[in-house]
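agent> fetching stored inputs for the adenosine-5'-diphosphate docking request
agent> found them:
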Amino acid sequence: MLVRKEVKPLRLIDEDGLRTDGRRVDELRNIKIDVGVLKNADGSCYLEIGRNKVMAAVYGPREVHPRHLALPDRAILRCRYHMVPFSVLERKSPNPTRREIELSKVIREALEPALFLEYFPRTTIDVYIEILQADGGTRTAGISAAAVALADAGIPMRDLVTAIAVGKADGHIILDLNDLEDKYGEADMPVAMMPNLGSITLLQADGEFTPEEFKEALNLAMKGIREVYAKQREALRRRYLKVREEVEGSV
Ligand code: ADP
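agent> prediction call returned; pasting tokens
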């Protein structure tokens, strides 16, 4: 039987300032975003960042079941973050873990400020995030994908939500941590923002930063967020050009 084992690296940043995957400290992994990939959802987005592969699907606004959860003055937002069993090296149980339940809540809170929920009383908007392959930064990849899927569903939004993690490895502040950096680095700080409004909707931190390091990390997160945001917009634009072509072609 083939045994695949993860090896702990001796160091995370070499003498040339390069990381385990060859990136510089302030570089993102490659990003690919496709919009409207699922026929049966109201909105959807497939996003890859490095080796992470994420699918987000949105349904709604639609009737709430069970009915008693409905609110008279606004829609409810429900989010499910889930890692499929084959998303990690050792099979993960398909049942939701405590981590996934917590991340579902954190992701809902990161997305909610962007939505005009008051436009759709007594309905629900359901967001499903499936992590197909995980390599560090899945919550932030999930948020960025879900925001695009919400826009694809035509749900009115104040702004997109864009997320990225920053952290610390071998004493350096780094952008967009991979799994090894997440596990063996000194700190990890996922950040989500509405980039145009300049408003932060998620900020978590694991590990320790000095006040200067925290500032540097937040600035680096904002730089990363601007880059991811450009990719989200580009993907949405591509999708709408395609839809327009199809509509124009059919008349
Ligand atoms: P995030 O993916 O947002 O960074 P965590 O910091 O909790 O969230 O997880 C970091 C990474 O650890 C994940 O991206 C994934 O690569 C890995 N991981 C998470 N859960 C598991 C698991 N059950 N089994 C193996 N690896 C996991």
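agent> quick read of the result: The first helix runs from residue 98 to 111.
agent> awaiting further instructions
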